[in-house]
Amino acid sequence: MPSSDSAAAKSKKKGGGFLSRQVAKSKKGDTLTEEQLLKKDTITVDDVLRLDRATENYLVDGRKNPYKIEFTRFKIRDIESAAVLFEIAKPEDEDHDTEMDVDEDDPDSGRFVRYRFTDEFLRLNSVGATVEFSVGPKPVENFRMVERHYFKDQLLKSFDFTFGFCMPNSKNSCEHIYEFPKIPESQIKDMVDHPYETRSDSFYFVNNELVMHNKADYAYDG
Questions:
Q1: Does residue 48 sit in helix, strand or coil?
Q2: Distance (Å, rounded) from C-alpha 168 to C-alpha 170?
Q3: Do 143 and 212 form a contact (C-beta atoms < 8 A)?
Q4: What string of pLDDT tens digits covers the 222 residues of the chain?
Q5: Superfamily of domain covering 34-90+111-219
Q6: Cβ neighbours of residue 123 under 8 Å, at least 6 residues apart?
Q7: DSSP string of 123-161?
Q8: What is the pLDDT of residue 12?
Q9: d(CA 186, CA 72)
Q10: For 1-33, what is each residue's pLDDT tens digit?
Q11: Measured between alpha carbons, how far is 163 from 202 in angstroms, rounded to an integer?
Q12: Domain boundaries, the chain
């Protein structure tokens, strides 16, 4: 993806679809457990696509981060109205009121986000998620994210986004477009009635090797 040292270059990319498309291509016996993945030396995109529930643990050590990828800002907006629904930034960014809570001594600090929205969020057609991040002295090739969403350990949807190539010591920005399927009102009610039982795993890959893993949970009773 485009990048520069002085300013973040910006692009928009769409990702989509229920993971049911993936499930339809796979046999039930192809499912992998979190425990099986934790025993592997290298975890690939195909591996995480075979998980059938949200993880309880992180699949990679947050202290390693060989490419020194650091997320510095994150914003969610409604595509149709352009209303900003959520925004968070590192403390160095004084233009934003909400700051990331990062503990330098905790390897898992900054890897989990808790969201609280109204039920109207579940009725949106699409949202844009802008992420800003920096990388260290090594070039980052084939940077890719797979994000999987679950409710009560039932797979809701999966998104697959490609960042592409990031230059060494660069700052980067990309807006991913999440296109949502229509959710039945009965399921919306169930999700509202069970806050934080909607969860997601965000898996980040470089050259098809898992290098970062972030987690989130969601409530829709705001």
A1: helix
A2: 5
A3: no
A4: 443 443 334 445 565 443 334 344 444 458 999 999 999 999 999 999 999 999 999 999 999 999 999 999 999 999 999 999 999 998 864 554 555 454 455 557 689 999 999 999 999 999 999 999 999 999 999 999 999 999 998 999 999 999 999 999 999 999 999 999 899 999 999 999 999 999 999 999 999 999 999 999 999 999
A5: GMP phosphodiesterase, delta subunit (2.70.50.40)
A6: 183, 188
A7: G-SEEEEEEEEE--SS-EEEEEEEEEEEETTEEEEEEEE
A8: 56
A9: 37
A10: 443 443 334 445 565 443 334 344 444 458 999
A11: 14
A12: 34-90+111-219
Q: Give the count of alpha carbons within 13 A of 159, CB side only.
A: 24
Q: Which residue has the tokens 């981060």?
A: 65
Is residue 165 within 8 A of residue 11, CB to CB? The reply is no
Does the pTM surpass 0.90? The reply is: no
Contact 212, 65 (CB under 8 A): yes
Question: Which stretches of the chain are assigned E, i.e. beta strand?
Answer: 12-15, 70-78, 84-89, 112-116, 126-134, 140-151, 154-166, 171-179, 198-206, 209-219
Q: Which two tokens stand for residue 151?
A: 């409710």
The C-alpha atoms of residue 94 and residue 128 are separated, in whole angstroms, by 23
For residue 41, how many other CB atoms are within 10 A of its CB? 5
Identify whether the C-beta of residue 212 lies closer than 8 Å to the C-beta of residue 144.
Answer: no
Tokens of 69: 């990828």
Q: Report the residue count for the chain.
A: 222
Question: What letter represents residue 100's amino acid?
Answer: M
